[in-house]
Design a protein that fits this description.
Blueprint (H helix, E strand, L loop, with lengths): L7 E6 L5 H13 L4 E6 L8 H9 L14 H5 L3 E4 L13 E4 L10 H22 L6
Parallel strand pairs: 1-2, 1-3, 3-4
């Protein structure tokens, strides 16, 4: 029987190759099985941005095997919280879902030095989100 008390979060950006991949990786890393994590893009890239992979490896999180995924209605419907990062109005909106829009610079075409501050801001936002959606499980 599935645990319906486990919150689920979907991270969406255009290419699902940078910001949403970092956010999903941080939440998975920090929350473990306390949160269901998904990420997707409205126009997925072929691969995850190599500078993003390198920046995440610097903090001990390996996302080299991740693959950009297409945003589906089902992914939105299955999520309690949908966090967009530049997908604009391409993200379907459903009643009962919580929507957040995180304005973050796009790491596309940037080197690892430019990705690091984006990574660090995402990590802080993920820590804040985790405290908010799993208050009973604070460590």
């Amino acid at each position: 029987m599935p645990d319906t008390t486990t919150p689920s979060v979907l991270f969406v950006c255009v290419h699902n190759a940078g910001r949403s991949q970092m956010a999903a990786a941080f939440l998975t890393h920090l929350a473990g099985d306390r949160v269901q994590v998904r990420s997707a893009g409205s126009a997925p890239a072929a691969t995850v941005n190599p500078a993003v992979v390198e920046a995440m490896a610097e903090v001990g999180i390996d996302i080299a095997a991740e693959v950009p995924k297409v945003l589906t209605v089902e992914a939105v419907q299955a999520s309690d919280v949908v966090i967009t990062m530049g997908c604009g109005d391409t993200c379907p909106v459903f009643p009962g879902k919580r929507y957040l829009d995180w304005e973050l610079p796009d790491p596309a075409g940037q080197g690892v030095a430019a990705v690091r501050p984006i990574r660090d801001e995402i990590e802080q936002r993920i820590r804040d989100l985790l405290d908010e959606i799993t208050p009973a499980n604070r460590t």
